[in-house]
Amino acid sequence: KAGVTQTPRYLIKTRGQQVTLSCSPISGHRSVSWYQQTPGQGLQFLFEYFSETQRNKGNFPGRFSGRQFSNSRSEMNVSTLELGDSALYLCASSPTGGSTDTQYFGPGTRLTVL
Amino acid sequence: GEDVEQSLFLSVREGDSSVINCTYTDSSSTYLYWYKQEPGAGLQLLTYIFSNMDMKQDQRLTVLLNKKDKHLSLRIADTQTGDSAIYFCAESWNSNSGYALNFGKGTSLLVTP
Question: Would an 8 Å CB–CB cutoff place B45 in contact with chain A?
């Protein structure tokens, strides 16, 4: 099976712009989670989607949003970018997102905000 | 969630064993995980242990779990230079509607020849 894929791999934006990142889960996986990784804060959970519904959300401002499509692919959007949004954004998929699932991560999208 | 604690750095010689330690916070976590991250890459799932187990061995990897102390360790036998990476411990935490992973800050393992 192909792994989790994320596009684009690298992105440079300026403050105030908005950005959309894409994640394609492993075939058959219906849960997609997003994490932000920064040197200072480490890995932090953003949100999780299952069957096109957001089920779980971390402690991030409303500028961070996402959605999931019927084929389980997911996008996350960050509006009004700030310098502090520079990070590696990781997507993970699992079959159902339940506590007995394991999450498999993609390679990430490296976002740089100038 | 609260902080999952890991030491930040570990340096070992090639061929020695490496032991990476982690203290987690949620005693109700179903699974505990170890992930590996190489430079410029995503997270690779190394191994995981079910919370009702004390030990799990998987080739060169041994995971020990002490539930009383909420302590998790990863032992890598015969450490190789290719094992140099950042290792993350993670616990699952549950909300009303789902669950997510709560990660430690990662331990940078440097393996020297």
Answer: yes
